[in-house]
Amino acid sequence: MTSDPRNSFAILLVDDKMENLISLQRMLEGDNRYFHLATSGNEALKTVLRNNDIGLILLDVQMPEMDGYEVARLLQLNPKTRDISIIFVTAINKEEQNVIRGFSAGAVDYLSKPLDVNVTRAKVNVFEKLYFSRQELKDALAEKEKINKQLERFTYMVAHDLKSPLAGAISMLSMIREEDCIQQSPEIKDQMTTVLSATNHLTEMISAILDYARQNDTTETMETVDIKLLITDISKLLFLPPNIRIVADGPLPVITATRLKLQRIFQNLISNAIKYNDKADGLIAVGATDRGEFYEFYVKDNGPGMQQRDTDRVFRLFERLDYNGKEEGSGIGLNIFKMLVEEQGGKVWAESEPGQGSIFYFLWRKI
């Protein structure tokens, strides 16, 4: 029998005696229910694998060849079937050891033979309601994910379309600022500098939004990555100011990873360390420690630092900290850094002290 799983509730009844199955089915029949019957553990497993809409299994414990505990254990081992609710039906008295064994195998409830009609119906009614509630939640999450994907695409398109004309505007403004009539008027020159600064800041924000929209599309190609060479390449891309040095704080490993993800992570951290450094001799150190299952990487700077209470807040989306009376940055970059690391099963954290600089750490799982 086929039916729309959004409106129907499929129940698998398992017992080695057909008369028990027929009796149980009649007891539980309802307008929105349909049943699968199995007279052995092997048949029950095959039925579950053939039908992905089963919402509840009433499983007899005492069966020849394969008992109910073994059937439940095998269902628990399969990711496709482990979430199906199982009620054990048993004539064994409910001693504590049997109850513990049943719950360990994957049962969510017990029914004792001989079955009480009212109790049996009441319990099945509860699991039916839970099944439909879970389906509604899955549908809602799927719809939310669909909407999020649409918003990401829209954000990317808008940001991309804005970036090109802004780049042209910045180029034109830079040329105009160099004109003699502008250079000869300090007031107009300052105003042009302010406009250029605001336009550049807007471009940075758009670039950050593009990074955020693209973060789920990062290629998953694995390759050998020499972290020291990666940092050297990033340093060349960033055109370091003359007062900034980047050094390796001890040996850096060669690992198997997604190069693009690691490049975005280190580039984000190093760019921030450069942007906010307020020292005449800026120093950025990159280090790594082998932690067994993970590598612990860090990027340390001697910049302005921040209050320790802000070291968690700085990773939140659109969170911007106050530097010398001004809110700086887009509040996106460090959130992307956090997401990229957590996608690999790692975590991020920071240590900082005002005036003494900051250290940003992340754990990167080994492949």
From TrEMBL:
GO terms for molecular function: histidine phosphotransfer kinase activity; phosphorelay sensor kinase activity. It catalyses: ATP + protein L-histidine = ADP + protein N-phospho-L-histidine. PROSITE patterns: HIS_KIN, RESPONSE_REGULATORY. The modification 4-aspartylphosphate is found at residue 60. One of its GO terms (cellular component) is plasma membrane. It comes from the Bacteria. Pfam families: HATPase_c, HisKA, Response_reg. Keywords: Kinase, Phosphoprotein, Transferase. It is an enzyme of class 2 (transferase). CDD domains: HisKA. Residues 10-128 form the Response regulatory domain. Its EC number is 2.7.13.3. Residues 157-367 form the Histidine kinase domain. This is histidine kinase. It comes from Chitinophaga fulva.
